[in-house]
Structure formats: structure tokens, C-alpha cells
Amino acid sequence: MDERTFGRSQQHASVVGLGTWQLGADWGDVDDKEALAVLEAAAESGVTFFDTADVYGDGRSEQTIATFLSTRPDLHVLVATKMGRRVDQIPENYVLDNFRAWNDRSRRNLGVDRIDLVQLHCPPTPVYSTDEVFDALDTLVEEERIAHYGVSVETCEEALTAIARPGVASVQIILNAFRMKPLREVLPAAQEAGVGIIARVPLASGLLSGKYTKDTVFPENDHRAYNRHGEAFDVGETFSGVDYTTGVEAAAEFTALTPEGYTPAQLALRWIIEQPGVTTVIPGARNPEQARANAAAAKLPLSQETLSAVRDLYDRRIKDQVENRW
What's the CA angle centered on 9, arms 58 and 108, to 5 degrees? Predict the structure, then answer.
């Protein structure tokens, strides 16, 4: 699979990575054996970038990655984790002592002395403008606890503030066919600065897979049931912030645009890969078949006609719901 470079850090990532939130929690139950099989299928399909976080299953996702990689010393996988969601979301908690404690825990979970890439996990907005926060991250690099650091953001404004920080290697942001605002300013700014873009929630929490209807019922422990209105965390993380009924209707139109030989999910992923400035896209997978199908999107061609049709759908059905908030 093709790889792209995080310019500032010179780290490499496959254009399709693997998001591992679902291997920890919040997407229903995932068996340990199945989780390891997902990682194996992704790696065998050429995926060289795993994204996780210390709160995914309270560390379970990190530990599962460590278990898998311990059995495959032949693989060269860039592992990125995130930190900052284990405490109350106030700027005062984003300090060096906490960073060291969270980093110690993640290094134990991952079984490494130094983590490839650590990202602040959608912190409060003032954090991005606080010099002491980034001084503390620089200290983690100096102490060889982490190789590089980045941020995961909710809004385009947060992304632009982070890109202006000279030590930020990557920005992780929601980008998909139902969330296009980052294309206007964030991706061009990141390209110019040499900052990698990690595109998350690429399928709009599964909407863009075309599998769901207005009558679909999600398990109680699935965030698509319990966070539909932002009850637990930013509603933009669930269905990209799109009203579910609108999303299902728009997803049916999206499915109708799927070229022959594609699945709707592969169209959604390939659309992201086509956007200038994207380094890697990180779909999740609940089983090996999904992991392999996601990876296959890296090689599929896409016509300008289809790209234009996806943009038209967004402008007509989605834009007014999401652009004023994120």
C-alpha cells in the first residue's frame, strides 16, 4: 500500500490506517480473538498505521495492539495513541505531571519505552493557545518518552491554531463526505506547514456504509445509541454531528453514487484519500473482512464526475447542519 509522510516528523503511514476505538469499547462488544484477527488482517493488507487512545476500553485497545505486535516483530507499524480524556475536561489538567502519568500508563499498555506519536485527545479549546502545554509536550520528547506529538481536534479553528505550533507533527480531524469544511483552510495550511492530517470518522459512524435505516437499533453500549445528542461527548463524534434521519436519507443518495466494483464504504474512504493534504484515513473494523475491504480502497480509482457528485450531495443535504459548529 502507498505510504505518505508526516512532513515535520518524517514518519510514514499507509494511506489507509486502522482506527481501534472499536477494539476497546463504545461500539458494542468485540471479542479479544476477533480484535487480534482485525489487526492481523489490516497488517496483511498493507496497513502500517494504528491509531488508539488510553481511554479506549480503559486501555484495552492499547493492550490489544501490544499483544498483536509482540507476535509480529517483522512488522513496522507506526502506533499513535492519545491522552487527556481520563480527567475532567478543564485546561488546568493539561500539565506536565499529568502528561508523564498518562504517558507512563500508555507505555506500559503498549509495551514500549517510547511511543511513536502521542496526540492530545480533543482537549478544551484554550489548551491549543497555552504555551506551557506545548512546552510540556516538548519535554516528553526530550525525555525520550515520545518520538513526536500531535493533536486531535473537534473544530477547524482548533486545527489551525495547532498547525501554527512548530512542534505539532499531526492533526487528527473529522473529515468525510458529510464533513467537508476542513478542505477549505485546514488541509491547505497543514500542507504548507508540513503537518500530517489524520482523517477520522471517515464513514460518519457507519452512515456512509449504507447499511443503516431509520429503524436500525444500536446496542445500549454503542455510542451511536447513547451519544446521539451529545449526552456523553461532542455530538460531532457520532454520525459526524448529522441528524440521524437526515443522515440516513443522504446516505441512501451517497450509496447510489457508488461506482461499479466499490462498496459505499470504499467510496467514502477513497474520496478522503483523493483530498490533497490527507496523510492517512483511519476507518475502524469490527471483523477481518471489513479491515481487508477498507484497505482495498487505497487502490481504487475515482472519477472527477463522482467526486463532483459527492460534493453536490454535501452542499444540498449536509452543509447547513455541520459547518456552523465545527
Answer: 25
Do residues 147 and 115 make contact, with C-beta atoms less than 8 angstroms apart? yes
Alpha carbons 286 and 134: distance in angstroms, whole number? 35
Judged by DSSP in three states, 73 sits in coil
Polymer length of the chain: 326
pLDDT digits (tens, 9 = 90+) for 10-63: 999 999 999 999 888 766 667 899 999 999 999 999 999 999 999 999 999 999
Any idea of the CA torsion for 50, 52, 58, 64, to the nearest 10 degrees? 0
The secondary structure of residue 257, as a DSSP letter, is T
DSSP string, 166-229: TTEEEEEEE-BTTB-GGGTTHHHHHHHHT-EEEEESTTTTTGGGT---TT----TTBHHHHSTT
